[in-house]
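Need the bound structure for nicotinamide-adenine-dinucleotide, inputs here:
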Amino acid sequence: MLASELDLGLSNMKKILVTGGAGFLGSHLCETLLAQGHDILCVDNFFTGSKENVAHLLKYPSFELMRFDITFPLYVEVDEIYNLACPASPIHYQFDPVQTTKTSVHGAINMLGLAKRVKAKILQASTSEVYGDPDVHPQPESYWGRVNPVGLRSCYDEGKRCAETLFFDYWRQHQLRIKVVRIFNTYGPRMHPNDGRVVSNIIVQALKGEDITVYGDGTQTRSFCYVDDLIEAMIRAMNTPDNFTGPINIGNPKEFTIMQLAKQVIAMTASKSNIVFRPLPSDDPKQRQPNIALAKDILNWTPSIELDEGLEKTINYFRTRTVAR
Ligand code: NAD
Ligand code: UDP
Ligand code: UDP
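Answer from helper R.:
Posting the output first, comments after.
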């Protein structure tokens, strides 16, 4: 807690830095933390995020937006840091893979250095990609993963793995208060319409009546978590006792094939689109489902939004954008 806030007696109000705060997840996180009465510093270089995602928050005096690249040192005074900055979709993170690794690794070092100086608690948005193409299913946190270190996805997967290493070394070496959450596929309003992720791709294609692209034969699986559930779990993770570091899986364990997802979106949008098959990208994991036993136990959390309910909200969001543009 900052001295100025203690003086004001605002003991529950925290100054919170959200890196990547103008992105898909970051904008929802800023919104929720702001609504809880905190003072938010949203830092983003707008590589994949946009001002539009947080435009509705700019009118609040407790919300501050800063254009900044976290691969450079940042000197601010905060109580908590949520480190979300990093392009998350294969198209975007493979656009400039060296910058992706820099964002994960240099960015983590800078944010950890900042947390160390101001004694802030810091949460890392890690990913299920640290498990790679898993040979253990579903994946518990104790599984070390099966990641290709030299492939097209490695800049993201290995960058995130190295960031986890840094978090745990700062914890061991400097006694930082850390939280590492491993996020599984999450979807919802404010996903980037052109980032190639499967939920946004299929919805936009269905709404435009374009061919729906299924990569491979569509039998690969993913487990989709609606953004509101995810944000709830992330904030709960930040608020766990100091002796809990994670890593902790957050996601929805209900698993669907990509073909099932495509058919459901077609039905829900009453689309006339056809499904077409495209080659499976290299290192594309065959199956993915989180084991969330730890999250249930430690966070007392379980996702509550079913796929059809979440898809409906997401389809409505893209419908307004697809029609408006
Ligand atoms: P996103 O691309 O919408 O958000 C990332 C944000 O980080 C963007 O606003 C982008 O402009 C910003 N950014 C990128 N590099 C930056 C840099 N060097 N400095 C400052 N800002 C930078 O993606 P998202 O889905 O909101 O993901 C947020 C975080 O959650 C990422 O770290 C991602 O790896 C992680 N994650 C997301 C998912 C998911 O399904 N959405 C799954 C696993 C992990
Ligand atoms: N750093 C930062 N903001 C701060 C403090 C540090 O961005 O308020 C960055 C700085 O670039 C530094 C890095 O974090 O190099 C790691 O800091 P640390 O104190 O761990 O190590 P240093 O490199 O300073 O010895
Ligand atoms: N996918 C697909 N069609 C698309 C986009 C993605 O079939 O238009 C597949 C992709 O090959 C992968 C799954 O959907 O098997 C999830 O892809 P996404 O990029 O959303 O997430 P990730 O692979 O990182 O889990």
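Comments: The longest helix spans residues 97-118. The longest strand covers residues 121-127.
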